[in-house]
Write a structure and sequence with these properties.
Length: about 250
């Protein structure tokens, strides 16, 4: 094929506006994730995962901008409609369209198919949410999948490749976000990130719950420190003792 014919045939495809810049930004963001991951180790503090979670979320936003827009239902007519919790296998997730389809089948005397089994992976706004446990090894596996997919992306990649890239980045972001949450070192379900009281008995290490328990055990005659009144504020403090008459 001559160069003129190649040039004439290439006129049928044009790169979407903004894709070169966004793809370069995505490649740079994903390439820097390895540097953040090298500093992590088993038992690392949750705050050390915050930079990884922020970098993953930035890369995910860039990848989702390159991919086609997703909706709650995946329905072009009702993109933000209600989800059908019992959608039969092979049907969409739009509750309005599925009810309309059920009514039509009921009028014809047919029965709808059985509901599809629950998916093993949750999805929010069409993006996957991996199941626990969330560990450093799971984060490394997610980032390895992101790195493998990054080398196959180009300006001419189909939209499905960018969708898969956004899904992988979202999975890795969820794992990093959960690892960046405060650990339950005190064993308290009410205050999972509370400091530990060194003087508390075993099983009651939460400093907030231990303080609440001590205050409840005080007698009524135990004096309490009154709150300090700031300058410029007027508070009417209730008198504990009435003045004698006269």
């Amino acid at each position: 094929m001559s160069p003129q014919e190649q040039q004439r045939g290439s006129r049928g495809y044009s790169v979407p506006t903004g894709r070169p810049y966004a793809l370069k930004e995505l490649q740079s963001a994903v390439g820097s994730l390895g540097d953040h991951l090298k500093e992590l180790y088993d038992g690392a503090h949750p705050t050390e995962y915050e930079s990884v979670a922020d970098a993953l979320y930035t890369a995910f936003q860039t990848a989702s901008g390159l991919a086609p827009a997703k909706s709650y239902t995946g329905c072009p007519e009702h993109p933000n409609g209600a989800l059908d919790p019992e959608a039969p296998e092979g049907w969409g997730r739009c509750l309005i369209c599925n009810d309309r389809r059920r009514l039509g089948m009921r009028a014809q005397g047919a029965r709808a198919a059985a509901a599809a089994p629950p998916a093993g992976e949750q999805r929010r706004l069409g993006y996957p949410v991996p199941d626990p446990p969330y560990t450093l090894q799971a984060l490394r596996e997610r980032l390895r999948a992101v790195e493998d997919r990054r080398f196959h992306l180009s300006l001419g990649s189909p939209p499905e490749d960018f969708v898969a890239m956004a899904d992988d980045l979202h999975r890795a972001f969820i794992v990093a976000r959960e690892l960046s949450r405060p650990r339950n070192a005190s064993g308290c379900s009410e205050h999972p990130g509370a400091p530990i009281d060194p003087d508390a008995p075993p099983g009651e290490a939460c400093i907030f719950c231990a303080g609440r328990k001590r205050r409840a055990q005080r007698s009524a005659q135990t004096p309490e420190m009154l709150p300090r009144i700031r300058r410029g504020e007027r508070r009417q403090l209730q008198r504990r003792f009435e003045r004698p008459p006269g």
